[in-house]
Amino acid sequence: MLDSKFIIFLILLISAITVCGTQNVFAENRTVTIPFGASNPHFETEAPFWYTPPILTIHVNDTIVWLNSDREVHTVTSGKGVDRGEFSQGKMEGKPDGYFDSGPFKPSQSLAFTFDKPGTFYYFCTIHPWMNGAIVVSQDIPDYATDAEGNKINKWPVVKYTDDKMVETDLSWEPHIILTGEQVTFVFNFYNPATSSEFMTSTPYRFVIVQNGTEIFSSEDSTQYSGAYKYFVFNKSGPVEFRLENIGNMNETVRFSTFVFDNPSEIKKEIPVIQPARNLQLGQETQIVFVGPPIAALAFIIIWAKWGDKFKKKRTGEKL
Ligand SMILES: [Cu+2]
């Protein structure tokens, strides 16, 4: 017969394998290739991009493998290389930001880097600083709110008590899932837990928001009756704590927490130049070709309409 301890051990082992397996399924490996000809900054290069693909969107904890398929030594260095304008002025030094740096790597060698934080990360080649690329690391935003430890918040408003159980505080925030740059409305009420009745008199309080150990908002106020509301817009992502302090001047604090996510619409997509001039897409520098001439033609028509008659008369006069 199987020992019960052994069965428990077996269950734990299977759970552990399942958890590890699930994490592996979600983290992906993606490849960025440095194509043949990438070292050539000029028109005649066949390389469609400096790095292929030039902009790649991945998730937190995904790994990028850069593969050098060129016949020259290159680097993959985080930061910004030179743009077309700087290159034309002879500027040959990019600005590394220190997040990652492959150092020189030879043809057919590769570099792997795991992105463990969200954001837009530019990179370039220090040897050929016109070679630019970017990795956009997006954050998975859950479809439910959690506290700062990641526990799902099942019931709204969230209810907390002061340590001495003298005050019950209900706090709700809208929207429940907080994104940077979006206004959040906080609504809170104070109750007497013994009688389940609202505080019907004006109650002093201090509403405080703490993010990454820093107080980013503080408001000392009094409720009209049992509750009040506040507005706030977060600039940064990360765990946050909402405190209601000194409720009713009783030196009692209740704490709530959640997580602020980077607003996907705020992730910057501005990239220096990610491909050689001959392979530029419509909408980049080729705008000069397509937008420039019509504007010049229009300007000519306007000038002709204003001054053309005088010019014609002058010529006619000459003939007579
Ligand atoms: Cu290079």
UniProtKB/TrEMBL annotation:
InterPro entries: BlueCu_1, Cupredoxin, ET_Amicyanin. The chain crosses the membrane at residues 288-305. One of its GO terms (molecular function) is copper ion binding. Residues 49-137 form the Blue (type 1) copper domain. Keywords: Copper, Membrane, Metal-binding, Transmembrane, Transmembrane helix. This is Blue (Type1) copper domain-containing protein. It comes from Nitrosotalea sinensis.
